[in-house]
Write a structure and sequence with these properties.
Layout lengths: L3 E7 L5 H14 L4 E5 L5 H11 L10 H25 L3 E5 L2 H10 L4 H11 L7 E6 L2 H14 L7 H4 L3 H17 L4 E5 L4 H18 L6
Parallel strand pairs: 1-3, 1-4, 2-3, 4-5
The structure holds adenosine-5'-diphosphate and magnesium ion.
Adenosine-5'-diphosphate binds next to α1, α6 and α9.
Length: about 220
């Protein structure tokens, strides 16, 4: 028995968490065995790492690029070991808000070499790939405006405040890296326009997820 591994990626404010919620509600309603998680922070120790990665430290010190990269991979290794691999082995649908492509896009945009990312992937992922990556694409100039509105209306727990304060130019580089990943992995990655209304984006995502689940033997009709 082998489950189905789905990741949702995209720049901040592109609607990942919104669509993970929509999709997970739909899958639960259909009675599918489901694990919904996110990176960083998919385990108890990973949530400690998430805090260290995303919250501003009172000292003002920030992580150097290599330390940050290794913390993301420590989080991912733990997540794979405790959550993702066991759930897939039990034949479940695993739905993740961010995964490897985010590291490739953000840490790549921060200057980490592709070869370093490849080596860490060999060590930690050991060949595991999502069956489908939903890549929500939009101009960060617009998506970051959504984030500002969201952060005003939601608690700090939901705010990825560190990245929010980075320059728009950085987010543009991140977006371009996501687009390059989509281009290089056309079979795995579904590139989906994210500026449309929530219901419309949800429908387009479902149009990609439903056939995958059917082909894996899940009844979704
Ligand atoms: N398609 C959409 N159109 C307009 N606003 C959206 C859309 N999708 C999400 N939002 C809103 O934009 C903000 C960011 O969405 P969110 O799902 O938190 O993005 P992400 O998890 O990718 O950072 C939230 O306030 C959300 O309600
Ligand atoms: Mg989110």
């Amino acid at each position: 028995m082998q489950g189905v591994f789905i990741t949702i990626e995209g720049v901040e404010g592109s609607g990942k968490s919104t669509q993970v919620l929509r999709l997970s509600e739909r899958l639960r309603h259909l009675g599918l065995p489901l694990v919904v998680s996110k990176e960083p922070g998919g385990t108890a120790l990973g949530r400690e790492l998430r805090r260290l990665l995303l919250e501003r430290h009172p000292s003002g010190e920030t992580w150097c690029a290599e330390a940050e990269l290794l913390l993301f991979y420590a989080d991912r290794a733990q997540h794979l070991e405790l959550v993702i691999r066991p759930a897939l082995a039990e034949g479940k649908v695993v739905l993740l808000d961010r995964f490897e492509d985010s590291t490739r896009a953000y840490q790549g945009a921060s200057g980490v070499a592709e070869a370093s990312l490849d080596r860490l992937n060999d060590l930690v992922l050991r060949g595991l790939k999502p069956n489908l990556t939903v890549m929500l694409d939009m101009d960060p100039e617009v998506s970051l405006q959504r984030v500002e509105v969201r952060n005003l209306s939601m608690g700090a727990e939901f705010a990825e405040t560190r990245f929010d304060e980075a320059e728009l130019e950085f987010h543009r580089r991140v977006r371009n890296r996501f687009l390059a990943i989509a281009q290089n992995h056309p079979n795995r990655v579904a590139l989906i326009p994210a500026r449309d209304p929530v219901d419309q984006v949800e429908a387009v995502i479902w149009g990609r997820v439903a056939p995958l689940l059917r082909s894996a033997g899940f009844g979704v009709d």
